[in-house]
Amino acid sequence: MDVVVVGAGPVGENVADRAARTGLSVVVVEKELVGGECSYWACMPSKALLRSGQALAAARRLPGAAEAVTGGLDAAEVLQRRTSFTHDWDDSSQAQWLESAGLSLVRGTARLDGPRRVRVGDEVLVARHAVVLSTGSVPVVPDVPGLADSSPWTSREATSAKTVPGRLFVLGGGVVGVELAQAWARLGSTVTLAARTGLLGGQEEFAGELVAGALRADGVDVRLGASPTRVTREGTGPFTVELSDGSRVEADEFLVATGRRPATSGLGLETVGLEDGGSLSVDDTGLVDGVEGGWLYATGDVSGRPKLTHQGKYAGRATGDAIAARAAGPIETPAWSRYTATADHHAVPQVVFTDPEVAQVGLTAAQARERGLDVKVVDYEIGNVAGASLVADGYTGTARMVVDEDRRVIVGVTFVGQDVAELLHAATVAIVGEVPLERLWHAVPSYPTISEVWLRLLETYGL
Ligand SMILES: Cc1cc2nc3c(=O)[nH]c(=O)nc-3n(C[C@H](O)[C@H](O)[C@H](O)COP(=O)(O)OP(=O)(O)OC[C@H]3O[C@@H](n4cnc5c(N)ncnc54)[C@H](O)[C@@H]3O)c2cc1C
Ligand SMILES: NC(=O)c1ccc[n+]([C@@H]2O[C@H](COP(=O)([O-])OP(=O)(O)OC[C@H]3O[C@@H](n4cnc5c(N)ncnc54)[C@H](O)[C@@H]3O)[C@@H](O)[C@H]2O)c1
User: Could you tell me the superkingdom of the organism this chain comes from (predicted)?
Assistant: First the structure.
């Protein structure tokens, strides 16, 4: 075979598909479900858990519709819809797609076994051109006394649960923590969320503040600056969580949402001169640094690049194309070519699917300043836009545009509010295209849409 891809998550599937398009023979090895974490325990089920609650909350913000909402969410129906998205954790349709794309599937756990060699049980696959590691990431469980022994939930259990826990304790104020805290609170759980700092660190501060306010409005007990010091649990009974502020919380489930690390343990990295379980670093084509011969690639969560499905798939397409092209001879890989994931350094979009949504791309104001840019920050209250006031009575939300004054281009945008997710791609296009503000002025948003926030941002900037 020409190429072996380890891991059939969304990223591995994309690498394999692109490499095979030019006629290379590609084998994909998967130890669990074809489709990976994203399809079965992450993106899709978590968004399905959130969506019905958002629709209900949106209706409640509209006189006329609000009166028609006479009950709460039907949790059983929401869980059933979630399960339909995961195909009841059955991957046969995704496995069929793989075969229909001309890719071979080997089921089992793969490990490297020296250069270009991948062992799956007794079988050794030898790749003529490339081995690609697309093994994803695993949750990090912090070293809190009693926690690891108490069988806490990770995002897997929290996205696949069949019933609503009476009381849920969430540790971590990142994306997983806030999304799943809101999902379960709206499904009827009594939720406590503890975060050692503010919510959504790394984003603009107002994003975490608006989300914290919304969670509290949903009844979540948000404890900022609080860390658990001990967790105790008898068998499968309730958890008792002791917190650094001296308080105690009882919960039926405890969700660990404190980040993820690349899945490199037991991958056989030591057989190719790397450290078992260590982190990988890659160039923009996905080639792993420190390995001779240009045959080992890594993409997606395992690669140390942004842990997001769309960004991993983007890098996977570049890697698949680079492998296919290199099979025919040396290639040039300048920035912004089809072989390079250049946008990883400039414009990584992310939507946090809470209500309000947080949609962010590029640099925050603080990150832009850290890079030494001459920055102008423009803020605008989205509720003042006619389109937003039509979408919801009392619309609350904020938009921020970060401008590089030297080049007069946008380097970062954040929108927080209801229904802002679909606004984000325009911002991504503006940043990737380095569209000058004077030209952006001519991109006229329709009236009355929330997109008119673009006009207001440019006017507030001074155009
Ligand atoms: C709760 C949650 C919600 C999320 N929501 C979003 C979202 O809304 N949008 C978004 O963009 N991102 C989201 N993410 C992140 C997203 O899930 C990941 O970025 C994405 O799944 C990464 O894809 P991947 O293919 O690199 O890895 P994975 O999806 O983890 O797939 C890796 C695959 O490799 C297999 N594998 C691992 N080791 C081996 C081995 N040794 N041999 C064979 N097979 C192996 C695994 O079984 C798995 O199928 C979310 C994450 C979580 C935890
Ligand atoms: N909508 C989306 O795009 C989406 C949704 C979910 C997850 N994801 C991706 O999945 C990845 C994992 O998400 P995540 O929320 O687990 O990680 P994260 O890195 O976003 O957040 C982890 C949070 O846990 C906190 N933390 C870490 N160690 C801690 C400790 N010992 N005690 C208390 N708090 C601690 C951190 O300060 C941080 O706030 C992220 O990279 C994210 O991009 C994306």
Answer: Bacteria
